[in-house]
Amino acid sequence: MDQIWWNKVTNAVRFVENISESINSGYSVILQLPKYVPWYASMMEIVNSYIMRDNSTRSFKKECDQGIEPGEYLINKFCKQEVRAHYRPGIGYPRFLAQIKEITLNQSILWVSEVDAVQVKRWHSFITDYNKALEKNKTGGLFVIETNDISLLKETKGIKLISYDDSIEEYDNYVFNMLAAAELKESKLFKQYLSEAVSSMLPDDIELASICISMGRKFLNNPIDKIRKAAKDNYRSDGTVFDVKESDEQLKDRLWRAQIKMIFPLIEEHRNSVISKYKNQIEPLLPLRAAYGEEIDEVSGVELGTIAFLVTTGKIMVDANDSDKIRLLKNMRNILAHIGVIEQNDIDKLFGF
């Protein structure tokens, strides 16, 4: 599933390409990531492979932020004791490090993770000053600074700001779910509805969504329980637990919205097909009175409840199969109109028409 997300979903692919292309063009990157990144390790592996493909002379290092001044951290990490002895506060860490010629930092790409709001400002300031202090045409170290929020930062010379939240859209989640569902041996309509339901109920958790998609029909038979069970029985790729904060009512509302989006239009299509088939019987009965007294004078406006009433009272004659179909369509439409959720057995019958 991780390969589908990072290699096939367009904006996810562009996101990792943007990081690697920025580094390969000589920029440092301050990278905004959410708390949970889908298959983080796979993202790192792909970015690393892209970067090292075009930077074979550089080394790639990943470190957790130490919560200290970036310059102090870098001097301690990359400079020998005899070099550190020459540092003076008046020089400043950025200029001191930029002026050293024989230092492995110059051939390094340093990815720093777990950088908080205070530290990211320090890193931004350090890298900005470091780039200014580098001699013209001198190769210096490159940095990827991973943090949760970059909204207060600005791009400066040699620094690119890249945001996961700005790169990935809700539609990307749906595309992923469609691609993941494509492997199931089900009808096109079923896979489309499964993708819509999972995308609506789990719009912000791709990893949990992937587990639900893989359940296929079992998921749609009892979506809310299956989400709870999947979250309880599985872990994220980084080893942390899933945390579904939404109540059952909230999840039910999201499922209803998915049905409004996909099932309701199908019901309307079948209503129109019934009207078209029995138009010659319905038109002579116009105008008709609907359930709430409104007058219907166009055959296209005859609702399922009215059609069912005409069948029940014998005013129009329909095939036995169509009678059952009209009854089912009417009941399904009424359920959705009253903010209810249609059972999967009935949806399967709708897909079978």
* Structural class category: alpha/beta
State the total count of DSSP E strands.
7
- Shape verdict: elongated
Order of helices and strands: HHEHEHHHEHEEHHHHHHHHEEHHH
CATH architecture of the largest domain: 3-Layer(aba) Sandwich
Mean pLDDT, to the nearest integer, reads 95
Beta fraction of the residues?
5-15%
As for the CATH topology of the largest domain, it is Rossmann fold
Task: Quickly count the domains.
Answer: 3
Distance between the termini: 32 Å
Runs in which pLDDT lies below 50 for 5 or more consecutive residues are none
Biggest sheet, in brief?
5 strands, parallel
Provide the CATH top-level class of the largest domain. Answer: Alpha Beta
Spatially, the strands of the biggest sheet line up as 2-3-4-1-5
Integer-rounded radius of gyration: 30 Å
Q: What report would you give on this structure?
A:
- The chain is of the alpha/beta class and 353 residues long.
- It folds into three domains: 2-167, 3-Layer(aba) Sandwich (Rossmann fold); 169-245, no CATH class; 260-353, no CATH class.
- 57% of the residues lie in helices and 10% in strands.
- The protein is built from 18 helices and seven strands.
- The chain has helices spanning 2-8, 10-24, 40-54, 70-78, 81-84, 93-99, 117-133, 164-167, 170-181, 188-201, 206-215, 217-221, 223-233, 248-277, 279-282, 304-312, 320-337, 344-352, and strands at residues 28-32, 59-64, 108-115, 142-147, 159-163, 288-289, 295-296.
- The protein has a five-stranded parallel β-sheet, sandwiched between helices. Strands 6-7 form a two-stranded antiparallel ribbon.
- Strand 3, helix 7 and strand 4 form a beta-alpha-beta unit.
- Helix 2 crosses helix 3 (40-54) and helix 14 (248-277) packs antiparallel against helix 17.
- The longest helix has 30 residues, at 248-277.
- It is elongated and about 100 Å long.
- The two termini are 32 Å apart.
- The mean pLDDT is 95.
